[in-house]
Amino acid sequence: LSGLDPAQPYFQGTPIEVRLDKTDADFVDVIHTDSAPTIPYLGFGIRPAIGHIDFYPNGGEQMPGCDKNAISQIVDLDGIWEGTRDFVACNHLRSYKYYSDSIVYPDGFLGYTCASYDLFQSGSCFPCPEEGCPNMGHYADKFKDKFKNDFVKLFLNTGEAKDFPLWRYKITVTLSGKSQVRGYVNVALYGSDGNTKQHQITTGHLKPDNTYTAYIDAEVNVGEVTKVKFLWNNNWINPTFPKLGAATITVEVGETR
Question: Of 48, 202, 215, 33, which Cα lies nearest the Cα of 121?
Fold first, then answer.
């Protein structure tokens, strides 16, 4: 059984006979997309983990792309009905849209076992364990019987719009150069299966010999990494023309470690 943001009002906190529960099937996976409290945030989806594995994309409360202005949502590309519905219950309806996308992307929507979304964002639960990470959605049942814990919470990030899956990488950059500057460092990944856009690794003071780490959620699974593009910019014209380079760049793939 796959629970697509099962309802919170009238169901949360009730006996298991009343609501979805892991005892309802051999394997119950749940996608939580609107689990903020109903009062005062109008969350429609249940908060607690109730299945064998529970996915909390983007933390499970506010989905990217659901905070765009009302007019742009109602006059939606998919039609006025779809747009109006999304305006009223965008977070809640993301669950079935993620599930639809998961059928097309068997390698997408990897969920990382973590105690909280904040810990996931900080990289504490990266990379996947040796046995791998479950895929949220249609292929979650590949992990049937692999978890022995009572409840397993899995976190991941998604895109703002279709196509929703993102792939997580850890990027570590050690800078080289002669002088400290202010600015930002961007990195793009190139691989056997595609290239990513530029992702910001750090911004602020850039010091040679310092190492900067970021976790990026890329819109493409690049496959085997073949090249990394490094770019820095100080946003203003500096008459001393400082030079900055990358002594080393390390890329760690969440899925394969």
Answer: 215
